[in-house]
Every structure is written in structure tokens, then in C-alpha cells.
Design a protein that fits this description.
Elements: E1 4-6, E2 9-11, E3 18-22, H1 31-44, E4 48-53, H2 56-59, H3 82-89, H4 93-105, E5 109-114, H5 117-125, E6 131-133, H6 141-148, E7 154-157, H7 163-175, E8 181-186, H8 201-209, E9 212-216, H9 223-230, E10 235-239, H10 257-274, E11 294-297, E12 312-315, H11 326-329
Parallel strand pairs: 3-4, 3-10, 4-5, 6-7, 7-8, 8-9, 9-10
Antiparallel strand pairs: 1-2, 11-12
Helix pairs in contact: 1-4, 1-10, 6-7, 9-10
Amino acid sequence: MTDFQIGQFTVGHNHKPFVIAEMSGNHNQSLDRALEIVEAAAKTGVQALKLQTYTADTITLDVADGEFFISDPNSLWKGSSLHKLYQQAYTPWEWHKPIFDRAWALGMVAFSSPFDETAVDFLEDLNVPCYKIASFENVHLPLIRKAASTKKPLIISTGMATIAELDEAVTAAREAGCKDLVLLKCTSTYPATPENTNIATIPHLRELFKCHVGLSDHTMGVGVSVASVALGARVLEKHFTLRRADGGVDSSFSMEPEEMTAIVVESERAFQAVGRITYGPTEAEKKSLQFRRSLYIARDMKAGEALTPETLRVVRPGMGLPPKFYDTMLGKTVKHDVKKGTPVTWDVVS
């Protein structure tokens, strides 16, 4: 798999994580607030700002009962119909351009998750640099084919998908023209718990589908995202808001600016720490070798005296022979007078 560009940023296994701030519905139906979120995201250091592109009518039916009504008492959105929820959460399409323009002006790239084919057409007119397929849409093969046909990079979240379903999605994307693919490990619960995140799947995804991998992270805090980088994640997505206390459809599992900054900083540190397989002293460590233990003369000695546990010590620094020669040296005699603190070398003994 080869590295590729999303705007001015390179995505690849040997590059620092590409971090996406997902606005979703956290604008609370205010364009001014949406633009504030863009500006706050830029200050955190993320590379990308992402929206979701749909209307209530393109994502569901205007039905307020049965399976179209959220009655699960544990759901964040209980007591609402799907149509009403999506009316509240959607980002007006006329807002996309000013939001995208502000993001680009602040040094980020901006793109979106389309939820139907008309959204792809709309986003193409805005010249987005890539597309994201949400977990709930990873079985929507017509949508995947439509997005892939643009030949732009495609990021697909894997929440809930079986290997067979992912194989269908990946095959559909590649057959439709997608060359640059990222699969994001995702747990489709809101919020997700670390125990239910299973990031051990990330390297398996990479090997199984021969593509770049990452994490769409709905857990609270930064630990899961940072840990995923050690397992190969090079794209990280987190929901983002100004303050969770402000409310909003996704606010309760969204990161605040200080937390998103920590993700950017700590995920890059994790990437730097992965490095390569290496043994022995690194260049930076070589100056520390002198502080290892080694063999030293522990008191003044005359020529011909034998080394004993009282006259031979294993101490720091490391200018003498390694400690593995301690037993070999015991009983050997010194060739000449030596002072306390002399490092023991082969030239000292006979």
C-alpha cells in the first residue's frame, strides 16, 4: 500500500497520524457556532475538519412510531423519532462552503461523510479532497461505489461490520475506482467503552485488506486513540465540540479543545515512539554506556598481589572490563602497582 495525499497532508504508515475533528451536529443549528468550532479545531492542531452531509429526508422516512421511534431508555436520543433527530442534527447544505472555506483558510482540510448519492454530487461541487463512509453506511454499497467513482481517497468506518460485509465494501470501493483506502476500527456505541473497543483488530484489518488503517474513536479521553497508534492506526477521528456542557446531539461523547490538543500531541509522540525494531545502544544512548558497571581496583595494590573480592569490585563507571569477567579475574595477579579506582583491563593482570 502506498502513501497518499489528502490536501497538503500525507497519509501513510510512516507518517504521523492524520487527526480528524468531527463536528457532526455539535453546531446546534448555529452557523456562528459552527465557525467557532472550526476555529477551535484549528488551534488544536488537527489536520482535518469533517461534517456529515444529509437531510432528514435523505436518511430516513418521516414516520414517528414503530422502528422509526427511539424508545431505548439507554439511548442518548430516546424519545425522538429518527426524522426529528436528523432534522436537529443535520448541517444545512448551504453552510458547507463557508465552513469548508474557513477550515482551509486556517490550514486544515475539510470534507464530509455523504449519506446518499446526492450528497456525493453536492460535495463534488465543493471539490472535497476525500470521502468518509460512516459505520452505519458501510453496507450501503451503492453509496460506496458512488464515492469511490470520484477516484478520491475513501475512509470507511467498520463499526458493526462482519469480515464478509467489509470484504463486500472494500471490493465495491476498489472495483469502482478507489485506489487510496483507509479502514477505521470503530465501535458504534455512544460513548464507547475501552473494554468494547478491541483495537487489537487494527493490525489484522491492515493485513487482511492490504490498506491503511485507523480508529474512529467514540471513547472518552485520549488513551484509546494514543494506544491505537502503536498498533498501526494512522488516521484518527474524534467528535469535537466547544464544551460538552453546551449540549447538542453528539456533545456527550465529543472532545473539548484541550482534549483534542492532547490527542494531536500524544498521538504524534506515540507514532515517534514506535520507531523500528532495534537492539543495542542507539546513538543517543552511547554516551550513557560510561555509566554501566565494570571491574575496578578497590584499593591500592602492589605488583604481584592477587585480585580478591576485597580488591576487585563491580562498580560504576564502565571503563573497565564487563562484570561477566569478575570470576575470571579473581585470583589473577596485577602486573604492576595500581591505585584504587583503576579500571581493570587485560593489561593490568598477568
